Amino acid sequence: MIKLKIKFSSMSKKNRIPDNTRHRELRQKLMKMILWPPEPSQKLRCSRPMLQRGGDFHILKELDGLSPETMLLLWSMMERYNSESKFKIFFETLPETFNTGLSFGIEALAALEGTLLFEEIIQAKEHLRMQYDVLCPLLCNKHPDIFQPDLYTWDRFLWACELWYSNSMKVVFPDEKLKTCLVPVAGLLNHSLCPHIIRYGRVDSASKALKFSLSRPCREGEQCYLSYGNFSSSHLITFYGFMPKGENLYDVIPLDIDAPQSDDFGNSRESEWTAHMVRGTWFSSNHELFNYGLPPPLLNYLRATLNGSKLPMETFVDTENEMAVLETLCSIFDPMLEGLGVLENDQSFGFQRSTAKDHIFGLGFMFSWT
C-alpha cells in the first residue's frame, strides 16, 4: 500500500478529522489508499489496482477510443454503491453534491448570463453531456445486467466527473510516470494564490509514501496550501467549486476584434492582431502615458486600425487618434461594467431574494470584477 506522508496539523480546523479512536482507525485506512487509472494497455483487465470487477468491464473493448479516464468515471459510478468495495470507506466520506459550477441551477446560470463563467459552464456541460449520451445509454442497452440504467444516470455521471475534476491530483510514481489520482486526506488540501506546495507529489519507493515538497515554510498548526494550477477564477468555479481569495493573476478576458477588410497586416497573421487576452490593468508594471496597463498588441492594433496605418505599429500617431483609441476601449468595456451595475442595483438578483448557494456564488464572481 502507498501511504500519505503529511501532518494533520497542516490542515485547517474545518478540515481536520476528530482525534478519537474510531476516527484514528478510519484515518489510518484512508491514508493507505491511493486511486489511479489503469494504463491503456491494461484496458481489458482494468482490475489492478483499480477496477476490481475486471470481468464486468471486458465489454469496454467494444468501444473504440475509450480513454482510461472515461473508464474510471464508469468505475466510480459503480464502485460508489458497491457494498463490498475495497474503497467503500473512501466513497462514504464523499459529499452527495460537490457544488461546482457544473451543478449550478437555472437561477444561478440566469444571473451569470453574458459572462465568461456562463459560457465556460455551458460549454463544459455540453461536452460532458455529449460524452454521456454516446457512452452510457449504449452500455445500458447492450449490457443491462452489468450497467443498470438506474446506476448510470446523467446525474451520477456528472457526480463522477465532479469528483475527479475537484478532488484528483497528479502524482509522480517511481517509474517517473505522472498519473492523475484520488488521494484521501491529501485531497483536503486547499488551493491558494500563494501556496506552500507547487510541485507534484512523488511516491517514494523506499518508504512507499506519497511525499510533497514545500516551496516555502509551513509552521505547525498553519493550514498547508496546494497549487491546483495556474487557473482563472472562472475555471476554478466551474471545475472545483470555489473562487480564490485575493487578486488572481490568471483572470483574463478574451477579446476578438473584427478586422476591416481593408486592414493590412503585413507579414503577420491576422489572428495575432485581432485576438487578445486582457487582464486587470493593476497587474501591469507599465502605467506610463499611452500604455494604460493594457497589452501593447491590442493598443497598436486599435491605433493602426483607427488611423488607417499598417501593422505592426510601434509608435503613437497623434493625440486625436489616441482619443479615438480611448473611446473605442470605453465602448468595449463599458457595456460589461454596466451589465454588472444593473445586477448589483436590481433587488431581484440581490442576496435578499435568494438562498441558493450557487446563485450567491455566481453573483460573488460577477461583483469581483467590478
UniProtKB/TrEMBL annotation:
Which InterPro entries is this protein grouped with? SET_dom_sf, SETD3_SETD6_MTase
- SUPFAM superfamilies on file: SET domain (SSF82199)
Q: Where are the transmembrane segments?
A: none
In terms of Gene3D superfamilies, this protein maps to: set domain protein methyltransferase, domain 1
GO MF terms listed in the record are: protein-lysine N-methyltransferase activity
Q: Which CDD domains does UniProt cross-reference here?
A: SET_LSMT
**PANTHER family reported in the protein's UniProt record:** N-METHYLTRANSFERASE DOMAIN AND SET DOMAIN CONTAINING PROTEIN-RELATED (PTHR13271:SF103), UNCHARACTERIZED PUTATIVE METHYLTRANSFERASE (PTHR13271)
Write the protein's name. SET domain-containing protein
Which species does this protein come from?
A: Aquilegia coerulea
